[in-house]
């Protein structure tokens, strides 16, 4: 059975599972666990989940050992795609994650580790992808875990998993309330997915909830993640005055700090020839009219949080004003305002602020006055992303966790 067909078959059964979202301890020796590693373009994140039940298997976040309830998530960087020239070193990059899991899990051989790679690896040739994942498989086996699904997933599947995760945590999969759309912004790609009564054939997904079928529009825009866009736009206007962006193998860029010029450069980059089947996103892809509420995760959340605009309706006009102030601030003053933030992140927020505003309005067509988007990274003490949805499907597809 394909992952997509399995997802449709499991959706109704998993509604009950998704409502049990309180993280659980891993100290119980009888506890069954599963691991999903989100292998993104800028780094890898390990998510540990509790598995319970026999059919279907229910999934909840595991608690980080030694904490009072924090979801167990570990991070490492750079991403697997950075090993494109040396694939035989890719597995070693995940050892810090696997070692942390091994330190607290007694029966590692009973725990499957699924590695789901996204846009960073999508951009690499197929033979390089295979070489990297083969080395990762070897590292998982040598660490004593059971390799699960190790694969490069499509952007549409990533969007579908994110939609499942968010709506499960909001308890919107019972058919009693409308589902929410999801906006996901990574380093190399950005995804949009929402319910629609006019799904295009190419990007249509359907899920069955009780007696109701929900048609979804899902699309992943490869190359429009914020890291790829930053490198492609490469505008001095998007870098604060006083900061010099040193680029590998390319001329340095001295910051000019001009929000409006930065925004215009981004909007020009977003424009592509119109699609053959309007309405279209500005990136040249058909996109049906949007409606309802949206939850924006990942890169959207970090930038909104930088401006204290998270966990409430995102005011795009206020975001633009905050971006204007931010980009106008000289670098030395900005570092004084944010002394604890690493330079590698801080120097990007002028661009990131301009980018998400342009992407949401010029790119996807949201009204600047909209109040339908909320940037979040946790619901019910579970970190938002697409990995919960992936674990819900993968655990039931592979049978891991069944007694």
Strand segment count: 18
**Helix segment count?**
13
What's the CATH architecture name of the largest domain?
2-Layer Sandwich
CA-CA gap between termini: 22 Å
The percent range for helix content is 25-40%
Give the CATH superfamily of the largest domain: Exopolyphosphatase. Domain 2
Runs in which pLDDT lies below 50 for 5 or more consecutive residues are: 1-6, 8-24, 399-403
Percent range for β-strand residues: 15-25%
Determine the mean pLDDT: 88
What's the CATH class of the largest domain, please?
Alpha Beta
Structural class: alpha+beta
What fold name goes in the CATH topology slot of the largest domain?
Nucleotidyltransferase, domain 5
Number of individual domains: 2
| Cα gyration radius (Å) | 21 Å
Describe this structure in words.
This protein is an alpha+beta fold. The protein has 2 domains: 3-154 and 385-398, Nucleotidyltransferase, domain 5 (2-Layer Sandwich), CATH 3.30.420; 156-379, Nucleotidyltransferase, domain 5 (2-Layer Sandwich). It contains 13 helices and 18 strands. Strands 1, 2, 3, 4, 5 and 6 form a 6-stranded mixed beta sheet that branches. The chain has a 6-stranded mixed beta sheet with strand order 9-10-8-7-15-16. Strands 11-12 form a two-stranded antiparallel ribbon. Strand 9 (204-209) and strand 10 form a beta hairpin. It is globular and about 55 Å long. The two termini are 22 Å apart. The model is unreliable at 1-6, 8-24 and 399-403 (pLDDT under 50).
């Amino acid at each position: 059975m394909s992952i997509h067909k399995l997802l449709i078959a499991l959706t109704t059964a998993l509604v009950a599972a998704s409502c049990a979202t309180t993280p659980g301890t891993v100290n119980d020796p009888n506890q069954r666990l599963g691991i999903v590693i989100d292998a993104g373009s800028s780094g890898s994140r390990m998510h540990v989940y509790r598995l319970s039940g026999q059919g279907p298997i229910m999934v909840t976040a595991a608690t980080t050992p030694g904490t009072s309830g924090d979801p167990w998530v570990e991070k490492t960087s750079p991403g697997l795609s950075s090993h494109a020239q040396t694939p035989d070193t890719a597995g070693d990059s995940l050892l810090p994650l696997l070692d942390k899991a091994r330190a607290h899990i007694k029966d590692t051989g009973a725990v499957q580790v699924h590695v789901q790679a996204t846009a960073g690896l999508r951009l690499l040739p197929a033979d390089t992808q295979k070489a990297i994942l083969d080395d990762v498989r070897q590292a998982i086996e040598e660490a004593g875990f059971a390799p699960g699904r190790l694969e490069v997933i499509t952007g549409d599947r990533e969007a579908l998993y994110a939609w499942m995760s968010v709506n499960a945590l909001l308890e919107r999969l019972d058919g009693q309330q409308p589902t929410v759309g999801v906006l996901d912004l990574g380093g190399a790609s950005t995804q949009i997915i929402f319910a629609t009564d006019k799904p295009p054939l190419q990007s249509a997904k359907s899920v069955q909830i009780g007696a109701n079928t929900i048609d979804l529009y899902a699309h992943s825009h490869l190359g429009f993640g914020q890291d790829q866009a930053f490198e492609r736009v490469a505008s001095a206007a998007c870098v604060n005055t006083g900061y010099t962006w040193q680029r590998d193998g390319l001329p340095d860029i001295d910051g000019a700090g001009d929000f409006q010029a930065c925004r215009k450069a981004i909007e020009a980059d977003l424009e592509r020839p119109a699609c053959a089947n309007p309405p279209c996103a500005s990136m040249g892809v058909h996109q049906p009219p949007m409606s309802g509420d949206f939850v924006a995760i990942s890169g959207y959340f970090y930038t909104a949080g930088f401006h204290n605009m998270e966990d409430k309706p995102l005011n795009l006009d206020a975001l633009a004003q905050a971006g204007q102030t931010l980009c106008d601030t000289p670098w030395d003053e900005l570092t004084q305002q944010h002394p604890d933030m690493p330079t590698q992140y801080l120097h990007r927020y002028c661009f990131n602020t301009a980018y998400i505003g342009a992407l949401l309005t010029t790119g996807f067509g949201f009204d600047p006055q909209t109040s339908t988007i909320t940037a979040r990274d946790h619901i019910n003490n579970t970190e938002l992303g697409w990995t919960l949805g992936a674990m819900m499907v993968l655990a039931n597809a592979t049978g891991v966790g069944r007694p």
